[in-house]
Amino acid sequence: MMGTKQMMAAVALVLIGLAAAGWSQPVPGDVFREYTWWNEKGDADGSFRVGGKYGEKDLDRGWALDYINAPVALDHDFDLEHAIRAEVVIEKILCHDSTKGLAIEVNGNPWIRIPEAEAIPYPQWEYQHHIYPVVAVPLAFLKSGKDNQFRLRVSPEHSWKWPQNLIYGVHFRVYYDAAKKPHPTGRITSLQSGAKLSRSVQLEVETASPADGIKQVDYIGHYEDVNYEGDGLYMQWHYHFFHGKIIHHIGTAQETPYRVTWDTSWVPDQKQPMAIAARIIDGNGMIYLTEAVTDLSLDRAGPRVELCKPYDVPKKWVTRSGAKQEHFAVTGDLSKAVAAQLVWSSWSPGYMCGISINGTQVFDTEGPRYAYCFHRVPVSDLSVFKPGVNTLTTGKTPLIDGQMVHGMEVNWPGIMVLIQYADKK
Fold first, then answer.
1. Average pLDDT in the chain
2. What is the CATH number of the domain that holds 87?
3. What is the domain-level CATH number for residue 265?
4. Claim to verify: residue 184 and residue 172 sit in the same structural domain
5. Which of 377, 286, 279, 391 is nearest to 330 (CA)?
6. Mean pLDDT over residues 16-20, rounded?
7. What is the pLDDT of residues 291-311, one digit of tens each?
């Protein structure tokens, strides 16, 4: 049982995370289902294109001159019994800079505006980004059973006459009254609040299910780390979705005792307490988010880790348009640096042309063309770093066979740098 002090800490942590995020997400104790959809037949790695080029119609892709996509019918059997609220999660890539006004219509009801990420500078549509906004959907907009559909649109206003977002997934989350709806339960048993976390953390849960058995357990953490989610928030519950599947969380287990080993060797040093919770999913798709284990801290034998957050991040960071640069600050003692990584989210990195730090190229290229990619690559030459302000540059993508090609889009918050330090004798 959690004491009063621990419970208050957990509640405060959750509220801080929600306030910073600016939109809803499940909190410990919630019971819900997730009905996921993505465009399996879509191009660009299963994307759903919202928008279109001025003067063109493309009915195969679903867009027309009004920039409203054709309705998408959902095959899911929606369960609204004892439902108390609902929301929709959008996996959104800006794609074409200056595209704005993304909105969703559910079953012919009034359009709902999809929020921009508040931590991205205004106007957000001038900065490349891949984010996962969540917006409330009135329960009255949904129907029980299989008769649900949605449409998406963007604003027709666009600086170069081709507004377009790419959507890699849409999923509806329905919350239930936990006192009335049968659901799995459980708690994390391998950690107590206030624990010190080593480089290797063992996570296990104790679970129970009324009828359908446990399908899987996903562990998530609230702590400071690289901004996987693209919204500019480094301290949050870290996880997001791709094609409706959870990624960049601590880990998933599918067999009892649902054990996951968390390697914290590249988790940045923390100034604030950390927390861990688990999403317990039963065979019927019902999800229970456990109470959080709170007031956790790192106590690792071995290297310390500095997260160098980029700033002066350029607008329209697409490498076909020229070399682009950002800055980051190094505060640690570089004489004790033992390893480093570059971490970022991109689209179409197969067209990238090198990354340099302070004028020295440290990486060439990796990843696909016309698809999402998340990068975590080592920097082998640590002498490229200097104390204080550093400059990171991406090279200009050249013409190929005399033709302009797409280039790599570098998504917000830019290219993050992690440096490991160890005491040297």
1. 91
2. 2.60.120.1200
3. 2.60.40.10
4. no
5. 391
6. 34
7. 999 999 999 988 899 999 999
CB atoms within 10 A of CB 147: 12
CA distance 357 to 95: 26
Could you tell me if 170 and 49 lie in one domain? yes
And the tokens for 92?
A: 């959104």
Measure the CA–CA gap between 133 and 91, rounded to whole angstroms: 7
Could you report the per-residue pLDDT of 244-296, keeping only the tens digit for each? 999 999 999 999 989 999 999 999 999 999 999 999 999 999 999 999 999 99
What does the alpha-carbon distance between residue 135 and residue 319 come to, in Å, rounded to a whole number?
32
Domain that holds residue 290: 4-30+178-298
List, as one string, the DSSP characters of 320-340: GG--EEEEEEE-S-GGGEEEE
What CA dihedral angle connects 397, 402, 404 and 406, to 10 degrees?
A: -60
Same domain, 289 and 336: no
Q: Domain check: are 105 and 218 in the same one? A: no
CB 191 within 8 A of CB 276: yes
pLDDT tens digits along 322-348:
999 999 999 999 999 999 999 999 999
pLDDT-derived band at 56, boundaries 50, 70, 90: low
Same domain, 154 and 38: yes
288 and 227 in one domain? yes
List all residues 6 or more positions away from 48 whose beta carbon is below 8 Å from its beta carbon.
38, 39, 42, 62, 69, 72, 152, 166, 167, 168, 170
- Report which residue type is found at 280: I
Nearest-5° angle of CA 114, CA 117, CA 122? 110
| Domain final residue, candidates 176, 201, 222 | 176
Secondary structure (3-state) at 7: helix
Same domain, 239 and 332: no
Task: Provide the token pair at 418.
Answer: 């992690």
Is residue 58 scored above 90 in pLDDT? no
Pairing of strands 293-298, 196-197: parallel
Residue 77 structure tokens: 């059997």
Give dist(CA 303, CA 105) in Å, integer: 50
Q: How far, in Å, CA of 196 to CA of 188, rounded?
A: 15
With residue 11 as reference, give the H or E element that holds it.
helix 4-21
- Residue scoring higher pLDDT (383 or 8): 383
pTM for the predicted model, two decimal places: 0.91
Among 330, 307, 339, 323, which residue's Cα sits nearest to residue 410? Answer: 323
Specify burial of residue 126 (Cβ count, 10 A radius: 0-12, 13-18, 19+): middle
Question: Which H helix or E strand runs over 353?
Answer: none
Q: How many domains does the chain have?
A: 3
Q: Are residues 172 and 45 in the same domain?
A: yes
- Name the residue type at position 311: Y
